[in-house]
Every structure is written in C-alpha cells, then in structure tokens.
C-alpha cells in the first residue's frame, strides 16, 4: 500500500515495554489505514526537579517541529509526560497549528481529547476476583489521588464490588502514587494485624502489585493462599515475579490504535473501527488461578531484546566524525559509522540551513526551533545512499516522504551540541521492535553533533582567512576584482565611457541556489563574467553578488545590455555543466550620473539593498510580471533553438498573450519573435565561423526545422548568405 498521508505522534521516549506497545499499536493501525507515523521524541522523559540543563532542552527542541511540518493529523501523548513545563510547551506548539490534533489524557485549547479505557479493564479484573475466586473483602491499591487514570481505575473497582453487593468505604482504598513505599507498608500492616487481612488486593499497576507481593512474602503472608493480588498494565516484571502476576495487558497498544482511528476520523470525517487490539487479562498464580497465560512469542522476543545489552561495536564515533574539512567528508564519515543501525530502513541527517551560524558573529547561533529550510547532509538507505547536499522545506519533514512509498514509522530526534541546535535525525522503520533509542544511539548522536560543531569551527577559520584576503583587490583564485578593487576603478571606468559619449549604469546581480549538484558556482560565474566583460569593469562585491558598469545610449539599451549579459552567463554555465537546472538570477540596475567616489559608494549600497529585497521576494516566490519577463528574455536568448510558443509562455507567467507581447515590447523595444530570430541568427553566426557543421545541422541547432527558411532569414538579417558569411569570417 502506498502511503497517502502523515500522522504525527508526540511521545517523551520509547524505552519501556509499555512505550513500545503504545507506538506499535499506533503504527500498526496507521499502516493499515495507509498513513506514515511520524514520531517526535525527546528520547528522555525529563523531570525538572532532578535533572535539567541545555542538553535536555536541546533534546526537547524536536517538539517545535510539529507546528512547522505538514501533517494530516497530530496525536499528543499528554499523559505520558512527567513535567508540566514540558507539557505546557508542547501544548503551545500544537495549538499554533490548524492541523487536527488529538490529546491523550489531557486538555489543550483548540484540540479534541481522548482517554484510554481504564474503567472497563479494572471492572473485569475485580469481577474475576469476586466471581471466580469468591473474594468478599477487597482492598484497592490506587495510584495518584485526583489523577484521571487512577480515578477511572478506582471507579471500575468500586462499581464491580457494588454490582456484587460488596460495600467499599474509604478505609479500603490505599493511594500508592505508583511507587513502592505504600505497598511495602501495606504488606507490613496486613501481616502485623494493624489492618484487617483482605481476601484480595486489586492494584492499579504492576509496580505496586509486585512490591506488595514482596512485602507480604517477606512478612510470612503467602500469595495467593493467604492474600490474592492482581496488577494492571502488563509490565515486563509481572512475568518474572514469584508467584507470577495476574494482570490486565494491552491497554497501551489498544490506546495507540484507538487514537489513530480517532485522528483519522477527524481528518476524513469518518472514524474507522479499531479491531486490531483489545485489553485482556493475563493469568498468573497471584490470583489463585491454576492456569497461566502463554506468553505471546512477539512479546517474549521484545522482552529478551529489552533485557539484553546491545553488542558493543568497536567504532570510534568521535574520531570518525571530527576532524573533517567539508560537508562531503563529514557525510562520508557519518555514513561509515552508520552501520550500527542495522535495523533502520532510512537514516537521514538533516541540518538546519543556518547550521554554520553567523560567521561575523560566531557567538550568535540557533538555540531554539528550526528554520523554514533544512539541509540534507546524508540520506542513507540499505544498500545505497540517496541524493544529499541540498536544501528542502522543513514542512516536508523528509523529501523521501513526497515520493511513492509504503507506510513507514519515522522517528525524529534532535541533533544539538553546546546549546546550539544543528538539526534533526530521521530514522525510518517497518517494525516497531527495531527501534533502539538506547545509550549507543545517544553516544552516536553526540559524536555526530560534535563532528558538526568541529566542522563549523573550521569553516569559521576559513572565513576569517578569507576576510583577511579581502584586504587585497582581487580574488586569489579567479582574479576577479573584489569590492575594494571594483570601487577603486569605478570612477575611471565611468569617465572613460563619458569620453566616448556614452552613459553608464550599475548592474548588480546575484543568484540562488549557490550550487549545482553540490558544486559551488562562484568560480564558474567569476570566469564567465570576466570573459564577457573584457571591455568594461566587473567585480564580486559580496559573497555571490556581482557588480558591472555597463555603457548605453538610450534607456531601453540599459535593460537590454543587462539581460544580454545574464543570458551570456547562463549560456556559459550550460556549456560547463550540461543540461541541468540553472540557478535563478536576480538583478537590479541604476543609472550612474556621477563619477564621484561618494556617489558611487552610495549607489552601490542602495542597489545592494534593493537587490537583497528582490532576492528574498524571489526565493519566497513573490515575483512580479516584470521580473518574470526579464527571466523569459534571458532564457530566449540563451536557448534560441527551442520551439518557443507564446501561448504556453504567457500561460506559465499567468497573463494573456496580448498583454505579454505588449509588456515585452514596452520593456525591451522589440517583439518576442524578433528577439528569438536575432538570438537564432547570432548563434548561427557563431557556428558558421567556429565549426565545420553542415548548413542543415546549423539550422537544426538554431531552432529551424526548414533549411530554406533558415537561409532566407539569415540573408535578410545579415545582408549575405550563410555560405558567404562562412567564407568571409571563418
């Protein structure tokens, strides 16, 4: 089945058998309904009074993703968290999104709530003691006073007794707070005769039941001969205590599956019926039954996995992930030590797009949340690695989720170090029992984060050295003028054009993204631009922002010269990198009336501000018609061989054919058709003078399906035939 949507599940940790049951119930149901289950976990269920620092805050930062990721629904396991501060933070995150949200065991504004069935199971196990074993004097060892779960279990106990005609008063109820001290004291008091010996004690969880059995046995009270005991929850230890414990199991697995059905109803308007899991009684000896329930083989396998230590793998994580000098090397090193996760289907290391921090202010870095874009550092799959080294939307969670795939269980955890948020790890599973968020995992994550931190420091050192190099006038690698070199020569260039009776304009341009297939374009653009600006001044004035002083006579010529230059750069990039998607160029142009250095400096500064605004708008897809027409012309000029259809072009821009033609003529002073013809003839002239290609081949290379049509148009534009042109200029 191909996954059709995504359900988010917020849990504090996946550690105990009950955690695994809960997640497994949710994932099994989600997979059946065709949904990926995205699990957001802080790995550690913190208790602020015991242990809290920046490290724990970094782990819990993963929860901020729920209001950024595109999910169909969210399940928030409110009841599983220990600390109100964490509960309140997560509640605030889920209330910020319009995504349907289901809160389990709590209440959050603008969401729906759901409770597990505590009452029915407690009623059943109590009736087992009264109906099957004839118990008439019963105590209830309850949990936390006022806690919904405890009170529901207690209500089930009271109603079961009432329906059997057994009166229960407050002296028959003992609150144990889910810990061991109260059960231990209760066992002593029963043995010492301080309280009447009951026929049975029905406990609201297995921890208290086991502690009570130990206390009774230590005080010479036999279980079940003297006092019968039952538990609740189906903890692992209930299978190994002496005597084996009768308890209720399946609560968490049923609750997880029920929650998925409920959220699907909120998403689709129709709630499917959950028929996979239900709570059941697991019989042990503690209640007096002679029979014991057989252990489910899958449960037994999970128990063995939880009790055994993972095999130590001799891998020096810290050495492998530190000492790298670039992202490619870091990714390779992480890949080398990724083999410890043998049961993971996917392993994606996603860094924040701003993970490098502010190079000018190294103490200013991300301490909270995530940016709108993430950077894929490593996408590891079984047997191969997927594409990496590119940005993607944080809203997408993982790019792989946008491709057809079977429903997966995706576990997201935070990647952080020294108070800095670096990103998140995503691990995809097809079986819940494969999850292992243990000390090996935490050590691996910490080593990885330290590797990222180490690389960040090296990049800062490189940046610091590059800043020193800016004291020179040219780039040490390509030789293009830097800002200093450009400004020194700008006035002289403007005055030279004045002497030739020409006006001057300042063109500033930049592009995004900065890489093609992980290759930085800076050196290529430097070289191409210098080759095109052999008779004027150009320079890289800030990172990937370029400045050029262009001559012109009329205003239309200012725009045309600018666009022709960009088209030339794009053509040069295609020659170097082949038929790939080129970056988008953003430009701003202004007339230069003065050759005074102060005026030039002001023009450069103001135009750079305007260019930055344009780039931000373009990256956010806020592009006006005029900018789109500029881009259209660059593409026409750089790819004249294509079969350009004005109707299709106007439709892609979102305006009518007539409106496009009118705007184009108004901006550039020529029609689209004339521009295409001029670009085709210019390309033909280059091929005629620089190659031995046949005329038919040249015609095809220039977008002509008919050689005769090409010959006629060439003669009209050039005043001579193509053959004559080749003889004269080759």
Describe it for me?
Strands 1, 2, 3, 4, 5, 12, 13, 14, 15, 16 and 17 form an eleven-stranded mixed beta sheet that branches. A four-stranded parallel beta sheet has the order 7-6-8-9, sandwiched between helices. It has a four-stranded antiparallel beta sheet with strand order 21-22-18-23, with helices on both faces. It is an alpha/beta fold. Helix 6 packs parallel to helix 7. Strand 1 (5-11), helix 1 and strand 2 (35-41) form a beta-alpha-beta unit. It is built from 23 helices and 23 strands. The mean pLDDT is 88. The relative contact order is 0.07.
Keywords:
eleven-stranded mixed β-sheet, alpha/beta, 730 residues, four-stranded parallel β-sheet, elongated
How far apart, in Å, are the first and last alpha carbons? 63 Å
- Estimated share of beta-strand residues: 15-25%
Number of E-type strands: 23
Low-confidence stretches: none
Overall average residue pLDDT: 88
Anisotropy-based shape:
elongated
Radius of gyration: 36 Å
Number of helices: 23
The main β sheet shows up as: 11 strands, mixed
Structural class: alpha/beta
Range of helix content: 40-55%
Compose a concise summary of this entry:
The protein is of the alpha/beta class and 730 residues long. The chain is built from 23 helices and 23 strands. The longest helix is centred in the middle third of the chain and has 31 residues, at 439-469.
